[in-house]
Write a structure and sequence with these properties.
By secondary structure, this protein is mainly beta. The protein has one domain: Sandwich (Jelly Rolls), CATH 2.60.120.10. It is about 5% helix and about 50% strand. It contains two helices and 25 strands. The strands form five sheets. Strands 1, 13, 14, 17, 18, 19, 20, 21, 22 and 23 form a ten-stranded antiparallel sheet that branches. A seven-stranded antiparallel sheet has the order 2-3-4-11-6-9-12, with no helix packed on it. The radius of gyration is 18 Å and the shape is globular. The relative contact order is 0.19. The mean pLDDT is about 95.
Length: about 280
């Protein structure tokens, strides 16, 4: 049997308000945890039940130097960006947007949801780009629920792999740097053994129920951070649970961030703001 990675800490997510007014549950960044290389932010959006006319989103805004990943469980979101990327994310779907050198985009509820309301629940993840790729051309990838690779677990749970590989199941998203993103709905008694590459970051975020991660218990709203070693990550749930598995190659580079821009120096941040104000951020 392969060795297991040690648990470094269990992080408690905190509620805050983001974007156009939607409530999120956020394990990082916080006052005590700025980022977990290569990840810059993880927000759980909702779950929230909107009445007619109440649904909110993120109106047009810029980004440079990283990637945004939006994954929905309930509701819908219309994406439009300055590079020509257009798509409606529906339950079980994902959009993976590489901002690169600069993009202006919006994520807004469709007209039907604005009119009728409904449940909204999903996640947004920010993935940093290495210095050598921060100014690459923007790219948009969108996949509907039926395109996400799914695997049924021994007791009837389901593992959906968006990117990277977990237990021999590989996702379809073409990532700029090595990243793993998987959503697992555990049935009672299910277990998953994940073998991230040695030295890579490995996170298990619980958003429903209770799991045991390499011997450490974690419940709804907690994220398990594991050491960057060569060992496995074994996740087990005795009663059923919902989790995200997130893995990635650390960049080990300086992080300068302000609002919608993430670069390596404050001078690069200032340049991004100047270009946005001058209308030259988008090339």
């Amino acid at each position: 049997m392969s060795p297991m990675r040690a648990v470094v800490e269990v992080v408690q997510a905190h509620r805050t308000v983001e974007g156009g007014g939607f409530v999120v549950r956020r394990p990082f960044p916080t006052a005590s945890l700025d980022h977990i290389d290569p990840f810059l932010l993880l927000d759980e959006m909702g779950p929230v039940e909107y009445g007619p006319g109440e649904a909110v989103g993120a109106p047009e805004h810029p980004h440079r130097g990283f990637e945004t990943v939006t994954y929905l469980l309930h509701g819908a979101m219309e994406h439009r960006d300055s590079s020509g990327g257009v798509g409606t994310i529906t339950p079980g779907g994902v959009q993976w947007m590489t901002a690169g050198s600069g993009v202006v985009h919006s994520e807004l509820p469709p007209a039907s949801m604005l009119k009728l309301g409904g449940k909204m629940h999903g996640f947004q993840l920010w993935v940093n780009l290495p210095a050598a790729k921060k100014m690459i051309a923007p790219r948009y990838q969108g996949f509907d629920a039926e395109e996400i690779v799914a695997h049924t677990l021994a007791n009837g749970g389901v593992m959906k792999v968006v990117a990277g590989e977990v237990a021999g199941v590989r996702g379809k998203v073409n990532t700029t740097s090595p990243v793993t993103y998987a959503h697992i709905e555990f049935a009672a008694g299910d277990q998953v053994a994940w073998a991230p590459q040695e030295g890579h970051t490995a996170l298990v975020h619980v958003f429903g129920g209770e799991v045991e991660v390499n011997g450490e218990k974690a419940v709804d709203g907690q994220m398990v951070v594991l050491e960057r070693s060569a060992g496995e990550v074994r996740v087990h749930s005795a009663s059923g649970a919902s989790v995200l598995l997130l893995g990635g190659e650390p960049l080990g580079e300086p992080v300068a961030r302000y609002g919608p821009f993430v670069m390596n120096t404050q001078e690069e941040i200032a340049q991004a703001f100047e270009e946005y104000q001058a209308g030259t951020l988008v090339r």
